[in-house]
Amino acid sequence: MTVSRILKADCGKLSALHARAFPKGWTAAEIARLIAEPGMVALASSAPDPDGFILVRVVMDEAEILTLATDPEHRRTGIGRALLMSALSEIRQSGAKRVFLEVSRSNMAAYRLYISAGFNEAGLRKAYYSDGTDALIMEKTLGE
Question: Any idea of the CA torsion for 59, 16, 78, 74, to the nearest 10 degrees?
Fold first, then answer.
């Protein structure tokens, strides 16, 4: 598996993937708008079709992971970890010192991935998701 930058032409496939990965998926237009913003790190796994992608917004010395989506049929195969590690490398090079994210309290697989990558719990957003689930705020300090 290789990881590459997301192109505007990928947004339709990524929207379909996001809809399979989450209860409320993002449209192709939403993804296209995000990847066009300054400071975005937008990476996808490259196969014939992407089976995962990550979007990270970098502002000054902080970054926020907006989404990390993996096709449900390809979970637990290292795609999410590869995307996360590639994105962390890029945002570290951009000068970010800390990275944040929200993860559903009920998404234990994602939680374990973030913990294993050195993230720590930093807070809680009660009933953050549309289904009423809480979001754990997680953060990681990036080394030099």
Answer: 170
